[in-house]
User: Fold these one by one.
Assistant:
Number 1:
Amino acid sequence: MSKVFVLDTQKQPLNPVHPGRARMLLSSGKAAVFKRYPFTLILKGRGEQPQVAPLRIKIDPGSKTTGIAIVNDTSGEVVFAAELSHRGQEIKKRLERRRGVRRSRRQRHTRYRKPRFENRHNKQRGWIAPSLESRVCNVVTWVQRLMRVCPIVAMSQELVKFDMQAMEQAEIKGIEYQQGTLQGYETREYLLEKWNRMCAYCSAKDIPLQIEHIHPRAKGGSDRLSNVTLACEACNSKKGTQDVRAFLATKPDVLRRILAQAQAPLKDAAAVNTTRWALYERLKALGIPLECGTGGRTKYNRVTRGIEKAHWCDAACVGASTPEHLHLSGVVPLLITADGHGSRQMCLMDKHGFPRTGPKQAKHVQGFQTGDMVCAIVTRGTKIGTYVGRVAVRATGSFNITTKQGTIQGISHRYCTALHTCDGYSYGQGEPLHPSPEKECLFPPPVLPDRGRKEAEV
Ligand SMILES: [Zn+2]
C-alpha cells in the first residue's frame, strides 16, 4: 500500500503512515495537507514521536522513464513508487529549432555585425548533452524532494547492465541459462548487449531470443561466451545441430559478421553509460550511502520474486540489498512527467523568423501561473460546476482549465483556489499491479523474454 508522508512541526520527516491513518489525522484536525505531490501531511502539534524507521530509495534510470521506489529493507514493504518521464526528446527538438532559426538569420542579408570571438563557453569536464543533463537533473530533483518528506538513509541505483568483472572469464554452464542463477542473468544481459538485442541470423527484433551455440555442442562446441549467440526460435530450430558454416553457406557475409562478432569481446565502453555515471556522481554527492546494482541482478531479483515488469517494480528490485519478500500489492505508482518551466523566447515567430506576437505577458496573473493545479468552484453563469486541473492564465484574469474531461475556457480567477504550484512536472496515477493468485514458474525457460524493454537505456 502506498503510504502518505508525514512531517512534524519542524518539517522533519516522520514515518510514512497508512492512508487510513492519514484520513483520521486530517479529519480530527491533527494534521494539514502540506503538499499534494507527493502527498504529504504536516502535524499541527507535538504528538507521540515514534522511532523513525530508516528507508531506502531505489532508482532504475531509463532513457524515457525512470522508476523510483522507496523500500523498507527490514519489512520488505514498498512505501512509495513513482515513474518519472523525462523530456530528453523535447529538449533536443527545441535546441534544433533554435539552431535552425539562428542559422537562417545568419544567412539573411542583415546589417553588418562585427564577428564576436571567444563567445563560447568551454565545455567543462563532466559536461553531458542538455537532453541527458535534464534526465540526470530530473532524478536528482526527485531524490532530494523525497528526502525532504521521508526518512531516507540509503540509496540503490542500477548503474550498469551487467557485471563486467563477472564476465571476464565467463563460461555459461547449461544450468545457468536453464535455471536462472544470478550469473545466468548477468550472462543474458551481456549477450543481449553484445548481439544488439536481435537474432544473429535474421536480425529479427523485439521477439523472444534463445541462446544458440555457433559451433553446436553436439559436435563438441564449447560453452564459452565466444561460442554463443542469440537466435529467434525459428532460426534456432532451423539450424539445429548443423555447423554454422553449413547453415550459412548461402550467406557468406552474414557468416563472416557472426564469426567476427563472436570473437570480439564486448568493449567496456559499450557497457558503461555516461548518463548513468553522471547520475551516480551526483547522487553520491548527496552524502547518503549509495549501493550500485546491475541490470542482470535487477532482472534476477524481479523474476525470482515473481514480480511483473514495470519501471517502478524494476526500481524496487535494484541491488543486492533487495529484501527476500517485497510487498507490492496495493501500491499505486505516482506518474510524474517532466514538462519544463516554459520557454525563454520573448515572442513567437513566423516561419521567416519575424515576430508574430507581442512581447510575453507577465508570468503571474492574480497570483496564478500557467501550470498550477487549481480547483475552480463556479457558482454562477453557464459553467456552473467544479473543475480540477491545470490552469493556463490569461492577462484578462479569465483562465482556461484543462481537466481530465477536457479544457474549460473562460473561468474567472475569482473561482480558483491553488492546489499545487507549478513545479515543472505534471502528475497522474498509475495502475497498481494485477493481483496474481498463483505464482508463475519462478525460473523462465531458456528463452530470453526481452519484449519488455524496447526503449534503449540511458
Ligand atoms: Zn532469426
Number 2:
Amino acid sequence: MNPALNPLVLNLKESATLSINMKALELRKNGKDVCHFGFGQSPFPIPENIQQALRDNSHRKAYLPTQGLPELLDVIASFYKKEFGYNFSSKNVVVGPGSKELIFQTLYLLEGPLLVPSPSWVSYGPQAALRGKKVIQVETSRENSYKLTADELDRMAHKVGHKQMVLILNNPNNPTGAVYTDDEMKELAQICRAYNIIVISDEIYAMIDYTGNGQASMYKYFPENTIVTGGMSKSFAAGGYRFGLMMIPDELSQVMDSLKSIISETFSSVCAPVQYAALEAYGNFDSIRPFIKKTCEIYKFSSEYLHERFISMGLNCPKPEGAFYMFPDFENFKGRLPNNIMTGVGLCSHLLNEYGIALLPGSDFYFPATNMGVRVAGVDFDGEDVYSRWEEGKLYGSDDAVKFFPNMVRGCDRLKGFLSEL
Ligand SMILES: Cc1ncc(COP(=O)(O)O)c(C=O)c1O
C-alpha cells in the first residue's frame, strides 16, 4: 500500500548529520578506514558523578511534571544566574528530551517566518518546514566569519516586513565555530528590538568557547523577547541522555503555557532518571567545572591544529573560536576538481568514497548546491584516552597532534594528498 502522507513530510529526508554518521560507521564496519569529520558529538566520557546519579536513580519510575522536576528547574535557573548572569527563575525553565525537540515545538507554536543566517545548523529549516513555516535565509560572509551582521539582519527584516518574525541564532556556532562578541550581539539586539523579532538563542555550545570572553548572548541585550536553549549534550558530553532545556522570559509567558500544553500531549515529561542526572550536573557544577575547562583546552588545541592544516593546504577557513566545528571551503580549487565536480555534495561523495574522508556539504547548511564550503566536526578521537593523557596547561605543539588525534591527522594528510594532485 502507498499510504497518503502529510505533504509537509514528503520532502523531508533523514537529518544530514545523522545520515553521514550512519554511512561513515557502516563503511568502518565494512573495514574501510574512514576519517570521520561528519558528526558533531562530544568524544569525552560523561563525568562520573553524572553517570552515578543516573544509576542511583534508575528505580524512579513515576512520570514527572510536564515542565520538569521542580528542584531541577530551580537548580537550572540558579546555574544560569551564577554562571551567565541571566535573570530567569524556575517558572521560566522547561526541560525536554534534547533542546532539538524544544526548538521544534517552539517553532511549531509560534506564528511568523523563521529567519536563519546561512550557514546555520541543519535542523532549523526542516523543523520549520515541517510546520509549513517559511524559512528565510539571511546572508553572511566568510570575511566576517559567517556571523550575522546587524546591517544584513536589518535589510532582511525590512524586506520581509512581517508583523511577527522569529530569528534563531546559535552561538558558539555550528557549523562555523564562530563566537559572537558582546558588541556584535548588542548591535543585533537593537535590530531585533526595532522589528520586535522573537529570538531563539541556541546556546547549546555555551561552555565550549576558547575566547575566554564569556558567553555573548542576545538575552543580555534583548531579554524580553529572547528564549534561550541549552542542555547536556555538548559540554557535559551526554548527547545520548537526551536532556535539553529552554528558558522563556515572563514577557513570553504565553509561549511557556502553550509549550507545556504541547509537551503534555506529546512526550509528557523527560525520562525521570535523566532529570536526576541533570540535577547533579547543574546542581553540583563545581565538581564538573574542571572537566569543562580541560575538554575546552583539548578542543581549542585540536581545532587550531585542523585550522592551520586547512589554511596551509590552500583552503579558506575562518578561525574557529568555539564549539567543535569549522567551515573550510574549496573555492580556490573550483574548476580543477576531478570528474568535473561542481557541487558540494559531489565533492563530499568523492572524498568519502575515494579518500575515506567524511564531511558535510554547505548545502546542508542553507548554502547553494554549488557552494564549495564543507563542515568539519573535529571530534574524531578517543576522548577517554586523550582526556586521561592530556596534561592541563602544558604547551603542546602541532607535532603532538598525532599522539592525540591520529585519525584527524590522517584525514588532513589525505586531504592534502587529494589537493596536491589537482
Ligand atoms: C546548533 C545545535 N543546536 C541544537 C542541537 C541539539 O542538541 P540536543 O537536542 O542534543 O540538545 C545541536 C546538536 O547537534 C546543535 O548542533
